[in-house]
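In this supplementary section we document a worked example of the pipeline. Step one takes a protein sequence of length 1127 as its only input; no multiple sequence alignment statistics are reported here. Step two produces a three-dimensional model, which step three serialises into structure tokens for compact storage. The input and output of this example are shown verbatim.
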Amino acid sequence: MENITFVRLKKHLVLKYTLWCFVFGPIPSFGLSPVHTYNTDVAISATDLIPSQMADLWNPLSSAMAPEDCDGDGVSCEQEEKDGTDPNDPCDFILEHQNCTPSEAWKKDDCDGDGVSNGKEKEDGTDPLDPCDFVLEHQDCSISEAWKKDDCDGDGVSNGKEKEDGTDPLDPCDFILEHQDCSISEAWKKDDCDGDGVSNGKEKEDGTDPLDPCDFILEHQDCSISEAWKKDDCDGDGVSNGKEKEDGTDPLDPCDFVLEHQDCSPSEEWKKDDCDGDGVSNGKEKEDGTDPLDPCDFVLEHQDCSPSEEWKKADCDGDGVTNEDEKEDGTDPLDPCDYKPESVTLPQTGDYLDADCDGDGVTNEDEEEDGTDPLDPCSFLLESQTVAPDSTWNAADCDGDGVTNEDEKEDGTDPLDPCDYKPESVTLPQTGDYLDADCDGDGVTNEDEEEDGTDPLDPCSFLLESQTVAPDSTWNAADCDGDGVTNEDEKEDGTDPLDPCDYKPESVTLPQTADWEALDCDDDGNPNGPDPDPLAANASDDYGSTPALTEVAINILENDDYLPNNDGNNLGETNLSRTGGDAVGTVSFDNETGFVTYTPTVEESNSTVTIVYQVCNVLPDPSVCASATIYIEVGANAIDAVDDAYSVTTDQDGVIEGSDVLLNDTLNGEPISIDDVVLTSTATAELTVNPDGSISVTEGTVVGTYTIDYTICDAGNATNCDTATVTVTVTEGMGGNVIDAVDDTYTDEDIDDSDVLLNDTLNGQALTLADVILTSTATEELTINPDGSVTVAPGTEVGTYTIDYTICDIMDVDNCDTATVTVIVTTVPPPPPPDAIIDAVDDAYTATVGEEGMIMDSDVLMNDTYDNFAVTLADVILTSTPTEELRVNEDGSVSVLPGTPEGTYTITYTICDILDVDNCDTATVTVEVTQGEDNVIDAVDDTYNTAITGGLIANSNVLENDTLNGELVSLGEVELTSTPTNELSIEDNGTVRVADDASPGTYTIEYTICEVDNPDNCDTATVTVVIEAIEVNQMLTPNGDLKNDFLFIRGVEYIKSSKLRIFNRWGTLVFEGDNYNNVNNAFDGRVRGKSAISVNEYLPAGVYFYIFNYETEQGSFTDSEYIYLSR
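The serialised model returned by step three reads:
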């Protein structure tokens, strides 16, 4: 029999068990029992059950076993036993272990004493056991004394006190500082209630208010500041705290801020304050737009408070007077030029030194250094002017010369010098010292010159009788009239220093001026300059010689004071006329050239005749004239045998057809006949001059050149003779030379000594390359070289090969013959050599934006190799495909294409063995294009040669070779500047001008070009000008030593046209030529032209006279002088 244990169940368990049995049937034991099926029609509604048991109705076991909560705190007694809490104390439990419904009494109770009932805390989700975990607004019962003494938020004010104060006991930053009555928490100390960046704890130590964001010590900020604090403005200076932190200024100091950073409204207190102590409140300075932090930036009339002592002792305008003293003096402390000099107690500094109080353009500082008065506009040094003068100074006239100071500055004259001004700039009355001065030093005061109507600035414009003061040394040493006599010497000589034709020649000590040289004091038409005697007209005797019946030309004016009418220097009109003499031949005077021509009669042979002539300048009234005598020595007839030349062939012997040695011979300049002369000649082995003047070639004369002389004598004067030479060239006749090209045979073993011409002949004789022209067309295997050798192509297989060649007579290219060369190759060719090692190596270059075109010194092949040797274009084939920015050129250079911007670009190229196009290598070129610093400007030196002595050099332009970034410059891109020298100047357009008085020589001048868009980008170059005189050499020595063998005329390249005539000492024309050029149209000591002497006759040593007429760009000129011929 089983043991049965009876358990006494509580009332609610009995009720549940009864319900169980009613529904499911009785349970025989507490163990497992068989399953019973029980059907009932009884319907039980849940509403019939006890409400408190409804939750367990459908879990009868659970209901039977449900826990009991002894104290109503929602935690079962069994659980509290486990937790170790008191099951009979409703306030001793673990909240997380609540496993049943708390009682109503518990809900109304307040376990933690925080004034919020347990039930309300359950609803709020706060801890009913934590007196500091509650919702303040939900306090619904009395708070405990313990809670009142506690400090939930750790702010040092007890909860009870906070209740009294109406502050939040849960907010550590909501409290009354004076009511702190307990210890503050560490968390509160680290917090920053007012967001000022200083922790609460630090503020407690400092004694500042942790609730006031503007009560703190700046240096003690030890945590992050709040956004609200950043936007606040603690010191009221109009700059937010956050901005002041960024600026490094003090957010608690209303006068420590950055004015430009004011980002909020300043406080009224700040507006009334005066931060800079200048006597104007901050608010007023804000209205005025002045700086409230600058004690010297204010509106004087707006001073509305007392200035500081520091301001009073300061000197805002730097004039040396304190601000306080200026206030007392009634002067402006902000105006450095408004002060009383007697009040100066401080060093003058700052704005005062930079100012120009008197407006004269010189700063006060410079005036102090110069020792001039900074308050006197006419006491200054001109070279110290560094600022713009004021309008008062500009309108004034410091030196009294009648020109305003401003106009003198514009004119470049001295406003302090009454004698340095431009008369055309006078706009004011001239006064004071100016009237007593003698500006030009001519001995006449300015006032007297004004009365006389002369120029007080021109030392040569005066009335001699008005000289009342001593002339200065400059005037004494000068020469007003340009006659070469100083003014002082003219005064001593009693001559007029203003009359260029009133002087004593013996007193001339200075060069006479160009104006004087252009005058004609003696009225002979010849200007003073070239006139041998400028004060008197003279004519001199002349001499000449000529054979009878032969015209002679004599320049009779070359040694007179008069000039021919064709001389551009002639100021008058020259007239030549005969007034006497015994000459009976034909006389002709040429007023244009100054020459007389005379043809003597036969009867005058071997005699001297005279012609008396008068030369006059007929423009004056009366005419100015002089007379002289011409002496002409008349000689015998002139006979001239002229050399001849003929050519024949070996087929032509006997008389040369058409030959006549007399054909080009003359007597007195006229062709001669056999009746006029006696012809004689001595025959040679090859040639004979026949009595009729023809030439015969002896039969059998071989090819060559032969000569024979002959002589002709005047039939009327057997002693009057001349000799000439006949040259005959004999060439090969029509029979022709026999040329024979003979076949040749070689093997590859003896080919090195081959010569196809070795067995060829010309006229049966062995020939050379000098005799023939050798031609041949190469085959694939054979080539006949220009020297006649034969070459076998490398790799030619064993076999027999032929090639033809042709030789032609070099003297007769139609006389030719052809032969065949046979070459037997017996040797197997060696194997082809291995491929050469070809290596293309990468390259890198730099270029500048705007520098388009080829990169300087670029060559992609420079570092490439071919069998370890440097590559050349003879070794390889270079190929490359251009990109949008780069191109590799055929010569290996690299070009940057136009418009390429800054950046790094690459391009590849390939080189292939020229002997094996499959043997290649590729490399990459990298070009870095950078932005250049400045455009590259390059002024290049220039050199010019000219014969002119005044004016522009034709076709000169110094800019034509200058560049900007490699491109030729234009005047729109650059500014051209240059300082003229005594001899040279450069015009604005780049042309070069030579001074009128420049002497022949070599001169230089510098010029500078600067980029218009960048005036600091400049370059300078030098222009060299060689001024060459057109000058006839005075000597020639035609002796074959290649030195002075002809008459050299310097500067002929500058001459447009010319005529040179040379006469012997008797006036006979011995040379005449147009457009003399020192080369093939030159005088080498032989007769040429229409001369009375035999043409080509070598002239004897002696003195000769020339007349050289020439024309240049500057006009027409005549040069005449003696020359010496030496042999």
